Every structure is written in C-alpha cells, then in structure tokens.
C-alpha cells in the first residue's frame, strides 16, 4: 500500500496500485514546461515503471532540427515525474536513454521503498501546477537572499550549470544576442509559419500551443532589452496591459543554463535541471522568463558559448524576478498522453 500525502502534509490519503501511481505521476508530469507548449511527450506504463518518450511528431523541425528543445522539454517532464513520486513517499530510479530498440525513449522511471517526502519536496510538488512562464519585465525588488546560490546548487545536482550574468557587459551582450535572434526569427517566413502553428487564436479549444492568455498583448520592454517571442504574429492577441507604466521594467537576474557536452543525454539533464530551478524559484515566489531564440540560431548559440559561457553549451537563457502578473496556460489531458 502506498500513501498519498495531502498537500498540507498532515493527512496521508490512501492509494495503491501501480496504475494509480502511474496516472498520478503523469498527471503531474504534463505540467512541465515545453518549447512553445508542444508537450512533445508520451508515457507508457511498463511492467516495472513508467517510460517517458519523445513524441517526434510534435518536434518543431525548423526551429529545432536536432530535437534539442524537444528533449529538454521531456527532461523537464522526467524531473516533474520524480517530484510526484517523492510526494507519494516513493524513491524514484531513473535510467536515461539510450535504448537502441526505442530511439525516442527518454527515460525509464522505476520506484521503490517508502521514505516520507521532505518539506522541500512537498513544496516543489505544490508548485508543479502553479508555476507559469513569465513573458516581460519584473518588479525592481531584489530576489530573496541566497536564492541564486541555491538555484546554482540545484542545477549542479542535475549535472548542469546555472551561470549568473552579473556583469553589465555580459548582460548587455546577452540582451543584444536575444534581440538579434528575435529579429532574425521574425525575418524567416518558415520559422514564422512554424511558430504560428503553435500559437492558437483567442478562444481556441486547443490544449496545446501558447494561448493568448499566456503573453501580454503589448510586449513589455525591459532594461536591458530581452524581447519576448512574437506569438501573436501581428494579430494584437494577448493579455491587456497590467498598468500604464511605459518605463522599461527590470530584466531581473539573467542566467544561462549550460551543460559540458551537447548530446541527447545532456539535453535530458538540462531539462531536469531547468524544471528543478523553475519549481524551486516558484516556491520562493519568484517567476522565470525563458528565451531560447538565440539558441535556435547556430551562429548566435556559438557566440554565447565562446564569449559568455566559457565553452560550455548554452541550453536555455533564464531570467528570474518577481511580478504580480499571472499567465494562464493549457495542457492535453492525461488520456491523450498515457498509452
Ligand atoms: C526548451 C524550451 C524552450 C522554451 N523557449 C521559450 C521562449 O523562447 N520564449 C518563451 O516565452 N517561452 C519559452 N519556453 C516556455 C514555454 O513556452 C512554456 O513552457 C509553455 O508555453 C508552457 O507554459 P507554462 O510554462 O506557463 O506552463 C520554453 C520552454 C522550453 C522547455
């Protein structure tokens, strides 16, 4: 018999079968962030655990020819599944790819034992449905003391490095690269068409893609500039402005998540590290804005690697800060992804 701990932590709720555990875990895992909310995953209930698979039909072939962002997204789902298992008091064991017979298998997750979750594990679990990607600027308030150092440690636990761009020149250079990439993507008709496929119009019943409730109708300027992607592609869709302030807002704490190598297993690690730092930040009331525009342009990714990350491979640009704004996202139901 396995016990489900209630979010408040006081009342364990009974639950038991491997099927129930699998469903519970997948229900949590689908909340992971994914590139353009493509949710490029499916899950299998195996004899001894759960398989996490990349759904290659959902890869963005123009923006993501190698499937790097697809695999990072699946890695984020793997970490979320681990947190859900810990919440149940189970100890996850994760075997990462490769499996020559199943090239799209990302990880096989099994579990054992009964160790009640620690407080911080319950807090991470509570953030899974609450965390949202922010698109825009942040309040001028400093982050909670010590948070950035903790986020660095958390990323390191997953085999990735969170590099803080604390120097004005580093932040300026990274901002310029994000801006250049954003312009380049808007100039490329194939990329614009592909992005539009994953940005449904307001009122759409779709449960994937970036909905108009997830980004501001008027792009928010930050200092230095970190432009958001053009999800509305000129339609004026998006959330109404939250205030009348026309001054640029803070870009927040600017970081780059990197790995030492650039193989699919590194992308899975980057995805796990990404979700780990996002959930931890969220549990401290801190939101994150993600920028993968420059990582989709090979020459700009190479520039970041050579000039800003000491040769390590950039996997995501992440800005952290506080904001009162709340985006609303969508997810496909579990029955569509648990096969
Ligand atoms: C690999 C990857 C790349 C992403 N790139 C961007 C990006 O460039 N711009 C952005 O606004 N969000 C980006 N996101 C965030 C996704 O758009 C977001 O996770 C998805 O829309 C689901 O929304 P949610 O995170 O609010 O649940 C990225 C996420 C992942 C995992």
Bound molecules: flavin mononucleotide
Strand order of the largest sheet: 3-4-6-5
Query: What Rg do the Cα atoms give?
Result: 19 Å
Q: Describe the biggest sheet?
A: 4 strands, antiparallel
Number of strands: 12
**CATH class bucket of the largest domain:** Alpha Beta
Unreliably modeled segments: 1-14
What is the arithmetic mean of pLDDT?
93
The N- to C-terminal Cα distance equals 24 Å
Look up the CATH topology of the largest domain: NADH Oxidase
Instruction: Specify the overall morphology.
Output: globular
CATH superfamily of the largest domain: NADH Oxidase
Count of helical segments? 9
CATH architecture of the largest domain: 3-Layer(aba) Sandwich
Give the structural class: alpha+beta
- Strand proportion, as a percent range, falls in 15-25%
- Write down the domain tally: 2
Q: Give the proportion of residues in helices.
A: 25-40%
List SSEs in N-to-C order.
EEHEEHEEHHEHHEEEHEHEH
């Amino acid at each position: 018999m396995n016990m489900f701990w209630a979010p408040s932590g006081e009342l364990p709720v009974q639950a038991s079968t491997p099927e129930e555990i699998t469903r519970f875990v997948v229900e949590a895992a689908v909340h992971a962030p994914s590139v353009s909310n493509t949710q490029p995953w499916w899950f299998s209930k195996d004899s001894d655990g759960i398989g996490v698979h990349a759904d290659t039909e959902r890869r963005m072939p123009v923006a993501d020819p190698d499937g790097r962002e697809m695999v990072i997204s699946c890695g984020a789902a793997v970490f979320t599944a681990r947190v859900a298992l810990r919440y149940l008091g189970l100890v996850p064991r994760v075997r990462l790819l490769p499996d020559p017979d199943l090239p799209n298998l990302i990880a096989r997750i099994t579990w054992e034992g009964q160790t009640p979750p620690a407080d911080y594990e319950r807090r991470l679990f509570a953030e899974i449905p609450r965390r949202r990607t922010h698109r825009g600027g942040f309040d001028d308030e400093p982050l909670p003391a010590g948070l950035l150092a903790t986020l660095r440690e958390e990323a390191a636990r997953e085999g990735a490095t969170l590099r803080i761009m604390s120097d004005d020149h580093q932040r300026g250079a990274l901002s310029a690269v994000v801006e250049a990439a954003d312009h380049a993507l808007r100039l490329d008709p194939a990329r614009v068409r592909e992005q539009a496929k994953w940005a449904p119009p307001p009122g759409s019943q779709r449960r994937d893609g970036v909905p108009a409730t997830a980004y501001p109708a008027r792009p928010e300027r930050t200092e230095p500039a970190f432009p958001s992607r053009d999800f509305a592609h000129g339609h004026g869709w998006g959330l109404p402005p939250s205030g009348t302030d026309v001054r640029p807002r803070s870009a927040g704490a600017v970081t780059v998540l990197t790995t030492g190598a650039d193989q699919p297993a590194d992308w899975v690690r980057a995805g796990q590290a990404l979700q780990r730092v996002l959930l931890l930040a969220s549990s401290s009331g801190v939101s994150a804005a993600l920028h993968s525009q420059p990582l989709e342009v090979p020459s700009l990714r190479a520039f970041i690697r050579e000039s800003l990350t000491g040769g390590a491979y950039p996997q995501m640009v992440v800005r952290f800060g506080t904001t009162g704004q709340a985006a609303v996202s969508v997810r496909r139901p579990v029955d569509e992804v648990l096969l």
